[in-house]
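Notebook B, p. 112. Complex prediction, attempt 2.
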Amino acid sequence: MAPLTDEQRLVRDSVREFADAEVAPLAAQIDIEHRPPLETVPKLAELGLLGMIVPAEYGGSGTDTLSYIIAIEELARACATTAVMVEAHTSLATWPILAFGTAQQRDRWLPALATGEKLGAFALTEPGAGTDAGAVATTAVREGEEYVLNGQKVFITGGGYAEVFIVIARTSHEGAPHKGLSAFIVERDTPGFTVGEGERKLGIRASSTPPLMFSDVRIPAGALLGNEGDGFKIAMATLDGGRTGIAAQAVGIAQGALEASIAYAKQRVQFGKPIGAQQAIQWMLADMSTDIEAGRQLTYLAAGLEDSGEPFGEAAARAKLFCGQMASRVTGMAIQIHGGNGYTEAYPVERAYRDAKITEIYEGTNEVQRMIIAKSLLR
Amino acid sequence: MKIVVAYKWAADPQEATVAADGQVDFSRAKSAVSDYDAVAITVARHLGDTHGADVVGLTVGGPEVATGLATKAALSRGLDALMVVADPALTAAGSTGTAQALATALAGVDDIAVLITGDSSVDVGAKLVPAVVGGLLGWPVLTEVTAVAIEPGALVVERAVSGGTEQLRIDGPAVLAVATDAATVKAPGMKDVLAAAKKPVQQLPADPVVADGTLRSTARLSGPARRGIQISTDDPAAAAAELVSALRADGVLIGGQQ
């Protein structure tokens, strides 16, 4: 990997300064309250974090992908929920409009999304369609100049507050299941569109992940993103970029746990000396640091490939696979270093341990990442 | 009209380590715009926006202050342009040498309304530089400044003083060292970071550096002796009285009722 540019280093410094001041102080409380930190959204927007990948002509910051990935990493170091709020809004809702939207769709939605005037979400998962994304059952039937949506989505990150949804729905039952899917831009206030109560989760408890219900939801034909039948392709391309974002989230969670562990190892005294003087603790810290750096490099590699216009799906899958497992390993060791204290809510590593697990599951499980990598190897 | 902000590109003490023998090691500490100087830039930016003036940064130091990272870091905080005096001889400059270099640079700049500085540098904290610069230039110097306004031919300055504030009207230009809480510093936005590379940076030559003296030795400062005082809190009122008494005996509490 090439060294980071001055701008990328300054993005890291700036987001860290912001996250330490505005994000970290809320992290424990919003986790306890199971509520998204919506009070942080205007501050995220002011800093330009909600439109990093959006070109300046649409009101965005116009940074490269790697800068955006660094920002997600730094947010996650302070609060995994805030990181995934930004990641889902950017990678899963804003990016597909940027990549596949018509000029009219870009003009209409990107300025509002880039400035945080509206937040976005991505609705693919259903009760019967998770890893098997081609099994989407929500339907979109063309009636004149409208589509009529019916069905249900679950675990939609940002669903509780987003106003713009990228919805994957079935427009055809002919041929292979995944070829009958299409993508739509759906507004929250459309009649027949309702949002349910979110699940209470193991980790990222503050993240809003409710079910969505579509009951004869009529949307204009112009809300179709790409062409009919492009839905699976759009969803997979969107998730490729999203996976780099989740890998970055995992790196950030692990980095926060490592820093907490280093601080604890310096101040916790047992047998008359700080536990950091014990080789057993030193080796754990060394392994954690090495694991994190390996994951960081895989993640930056995927982002760098995307920035250079090269295929990056396999690299993103590799980064997500490694980083999700790495974050679980590292946060587990962080609890071990903290001993009984680490098992309590009084220390941030307890939350980090719970938050880390989801990075092995959402936006493609470990097993899906292995499928993607193996498919590429055996091509 | 220019508002100049003097800032220091300084190693962050929070990233320094203290060895068992008390020696402070800055070798692994990242450098950044000194914390209190970021407050000065924020005050200057507000003043510049209010009065339509250019806000120009000025820093002096070793070659590291002229790196792309250092200059962009400062510019991303809201400066319109930058003047840099970078010379190896300034790497270890003390307050006098730094002030001399700043004053020399300022002497060649036209139309300065005010020089704004931080309260002190985050690594040294001597609070000397503003006063020495003002002395060298013959400009008035005010510290603990909490607000500034520009009027024709004058500056209206609010200062924090014991028990309240005072407002002064002084002829400009002047050196104003802002209080640490004079403004809330915000992290640079993403657009500010990207825009920094497009702003002008002027490199100025360094004059021979005035030495503050030659370091011969350092000695560890021993702390106050522990006297083993223990205060029982069984009776809170008595404990409070005993605590106050002990603090008076140490000279921590002064004045008021005995």
